[in-house]
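pipeline/complex-builder :: batch 7 item 3
reading input block
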Amino acid sequence: MKRNLLLNQTAVSVDVNAISAEKVSFEWAGSSHSFELIQRSGDTVVLRDAQGVQHRLQVTSGLVSGCGLDAEIADVTAGAKKKAAVLGGLNAPMPGKVFKVLVKTGEAVIKGQTLLVLEAMKMEHAIKADKDGKVRKILFKEGDLVQGGMALAELE
Amino acid sequence: MKIKKILIANRGEIAVRVIKSARAMGIKTVALYADDDAKLPHVWMADEAHCLGTGTLKETYLNQAKILEVAKSTKADAIHPGYGFLSENAGFCEAVEKAGLIFIGPTAEAIRLMGDKIGSKIAVEKYNVPMIPGYHGSNQDGAFLSGEAKRIGFPVLIKASAGGGGKGMRIVHAESEFLEALASAKSEAAKAFSNDAVLIEKYVTEPRHIEVQVMSDTHGQHFHLFERECSIQRRYQKVIEETPAPRLSAETQKAICQTAVEIAKGINYRGAGTVEFIMGADQKFYFLEMNTRLQVEHPITEMVTGFDLVGLQIQVASGEKLNLKQVDIRQNGHAIECRICAEDPDNGFLPTVGTIKKIGTATLKDVRLDCGYVDGSVVGVNYDPMLAKLIAWAPTREEAINKMLVALDEVVFAGLKSNRDYLRRLLRHSDFKAGKTHTHFIPDHGESLKPLPAESKEFAVHVAAYLLAGTKPAASSDGVATTNPWTSLSGLRN
């Protein structure tokens, strides 16, 4: 059975050969793996691999931490796909406040030109044109609060 | 005067930190909070808590009049400013003392003197303190400064004299780039600090940031509690700190600590302070600045010396003579601190927000988590992105690194993107393990600090754990990937 996952925000797929409450075997990164769940206590799980090596991990709300690595894992759902599809172009890379709007609607801009400046947690971040073009729309004014990922401007 | 009640003019982890020391000393505490912080632990951990209302920082945590009003109405006899906010505000220190209260910190005079990058250098020069070649004068003429840069020798660093946090700072490699860099540094400084004065210094290559903790009482005693190495930085802010500093000769250590004590003595300092130095590959060190407050990274000093620095601050503020001798202050073992921040190191260290669904617990001995949040706390855009400080102590540096790696595996901050994975990459880096630390470590090792590709065999066990946890697709829609707008955006990037 194929499972489509997002692992650290990257779409991956895993071929699950067999799964029960205590055991799982699957194909991953070009080889076969099987693990046995030998202990579960709160968020801590201990898995034993085919060689008998035991791995201790924390599994909490989509975050799997252990063995020196973090993996944020989630199943790919229709909702997640839809959300990803509306993003793109000139989006806020972080939540914050629109500190400055440097261009006007209709203005010609060149690639790399700063269109807006966002401010959050004492830091400023310039939103730059990703191509040459003309400003079709600036979607926020100075002082507006924006969420990370929101489109800020449109170019044509 | 015996202090009976302390008002803490701060929030989050440092407020919690002060509450703990005060409680251990039998002193009551008064917490302050802005509306959006009402559910944070520092509020319910204190003996009393008062709301500062809503609005900008000026109206809340920086609102001196309101803070003094609460101090009076709650009959607090001292104010601890923590770090940041009003901690290095000489005017606030004066207002507190004028109101008949104790300011747990240095004198207004010391804050003012050390707060000015130019003034502080002129002041400490007379105590035989090594100074970096530079120009710290008041002549701000472009042609003149360009001539000074040439005299000092390129590369040079232009710095805002009222600055901090990297604002108004430029590295100039050649004379031809100087005037343009000067203009942009000045305009940034004017915006950030309402003061465009700059200073010029020799730029030290592979510089290390080494600082010394000092503690002075009001009876003429000045001590040092050894050095801290804070070279691992991003955006000019520290990420990993440790003590003792690796690769430091016993001679250099003695000299740098003694220099810091001389400065404290010279300016007749009071309370906890930190003298920061820049050190080149040749182990030559130069005075950088003095921070007239408790530092974020003070716990590592506590771990190796066994002292409670907040406790000592309170003793000094009460007017006590510290019952200490310099020879009795020892540096035992090795301590490392990691700053866990709500940010994405793999995308320009941009801050992230969200609700902390779960904070993990460290299980090993001598691991300490200083944290101002609990499960369910909301991390917003209004405050610093630091979530917590994780501190590990062990007899040796190698053991301390290993212990920290285990602690970072355990102390999850589930629900929002943090730099935990990145911290582990730093700690595992061969150059870090070898102690080859310098302030350009992060930019210089950009490639080797990148995350593992998603489809790596190392993640097999994580995938197995996820599959076995039996998370249904429906349940996962509440997970990290879909509720945090920032992580959805990152999804697009790949």
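note: The first helix of chain A runs from residue 78 to 86.
queue -> next item
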